[in-house]
Specification:
Layout lengths: L7 E5 L5 E7 L10 H9 L6 H10 L3 H6 L13 E2 L9 H10 L3 H9 L13 H7 L3 H28 L16
Parallel strand pairs: 1-3
Antiparallel strand pairs: 1-2
Helix pairs in contact: 1-2
């Protein structure tokens, strides 16, 4: 069973109007999609496998999967959105934004702009300020760790002190003579 519902898609001109031309959906977009493959693709995007790429492209042709992944495609006229070859001549980012705005695909881009990613220059597990942002209980956990470590050090010192203060009796074995053996 094909994953996409329509075998034909209309080609959108850059001026925002459909020129009436349509094309068949590429076979890569008709590949069957299994949920375990979709999860595998999303967890292993960095790996460059052909089947993973085909599954990702096929998943991008289904509006329900796009919406489930959090993409904002409500204003897009048709999914998959196929643009004319004139889009390859766009050189400026601002012109690309204008084209995306014409087709209602700008909302997904704007959503990504809102996400702020903080660059950590230090290991967050060693940087107390960053660790407190990640885990508010980190300060308490670190304090408990230090108290436990202090207790272990004290116990070890007590054991060593006790060991040094008790007189130890050294027992020597008497040598075995050849006649006894």
């Amino acid at each position: 069973m094909a994953a996409a519902a329509r075998p034909l898609v209309s080609i959108q001109a850059l001026d925002g109007e459909s020129g009436g031309a349509s094309t068949t959906l590429p076979t890569v977009l008709l590949a069957p999609i299994r949920q375990d493959i979709v999860e595998f693709v999303h967890s292993n995007v960095a790996k460059n496998k052909l089947y993973a790429v085909c599954s990702a492209l096929a998943a991008s042709a289904i509006p329900a999967l796009l919406l489930a992944r959090g993409h904002k495609i409500e204003k897009v006229p048709e999914v998959p959105l196929v643009l004319s070859d004139a889009v390859e001549n766009i050189e400026k980012t601002s012109a690309a934004f204008i084209v995306l705005k014409k087709f209602g695909a700008i909302d997904d881009i704007e959503k990504k702009k809102e996400i702020k990613r903080r660059v950590l220059k230090k290991n967050p597990l060693e940087n107390l300020g960053a660790m407190l942002e990640l885990n508010p209980y980190a300060k308490t956990a670190r304090r408990m760790e230090l108290v436990a470590q202090e207790g272990r050090v004290k116990a070890k010192a007590e054991k060593l002190k006790l060991k040094r203060s008790t007189p130890q009796v050294l027992q020597f074995r008497r040598p075995i003579s050849v006649t006894e053996a």
